[in-house]
Write a structure and sequence with these properties.
The protein is an alpha+beta fold. It is built from ten helices and ten strands. About 40% of the residues lie in helices and about 15% in strands. The two termini are about 25 Å apart.
Amino acid sequence: MGSEEKSIPTGTPISELEIDAALVYNLLQEQHPELTHLPIHLVDAGWDNTMFRLGEHLSVRLPRRKVAATLIENEQTWLPFLADRLPIPVPTPYRIGKPARGYPWRWSVLPWLSGVAADQQEPHVNQAKLFASFLRSLHVPAPLNAPLNLVRGVPLNQRAASIEERMQRLERKTNLITPEIKNTWNKALNAPIDVQATWLHGDLHARNVLVENGVIVGIIDWGDITSGDIATDIASIWMLFGEQNARQQAIAEYANISDATLQRAKGWAIIFGVLLLDTGLVDNPRHAVMGEKTLHRVSEDW
């Protein structure tokens, strides 16, 4: 899920360029020829980027649409400054790629992080405290020139119109927009932001968390990195942990989350759940399931 979100029920954005293994090879040959002996395999294409595996230990990540070009530059600029303070591995760029061979944007060679996405294998309950520790370590004040993001870390009322339009549409299609969801959303809208702005991942849904044998082993896709309201990231607790006990452990371990912040976090969980479900119903059943699970969990904890 990328940072460009509209209220119309569109599915995954179409790639603006043809990106294949031949292009990756040509870019590497021109800029990082020492890596061209490694095999190249397409792994996945998301909302914003196409990912290739490069040998056993590396990957190549290329924006597939113009809006993502700035996002990958944000990753390249800022992730190296944050990586060492985080208790979970992140894909700090190993090599930086520049526009060439008709490809117009910057791109990255990254370490390959093992594991599968958390929507395919849920983290074990005992990972709740580690994940909370990761959030705490990330949530420190950012410099004044931190990337701006118009849809993450912002006051919830800036998202209300488009999200409520999606909620109304989902209410006609599903039984997931429950009275508990509506009440939680209204409470979240009325909850003041009572914390200072900090660094945020910004897009911590389950596909951006890697798990191996129940253990969280990586946090990926930092394109939405920004400074703003910590509630945006705390919402991920409802996207990752199916057991209420695990969610409670994560909240307790993060420590000193005010009632207002907790309400806003549930509001952000609703935003992510609604976006994933509404767009997923168009062409991505995996996202639809993620959205459904998130909304169920928020209803359970309202």
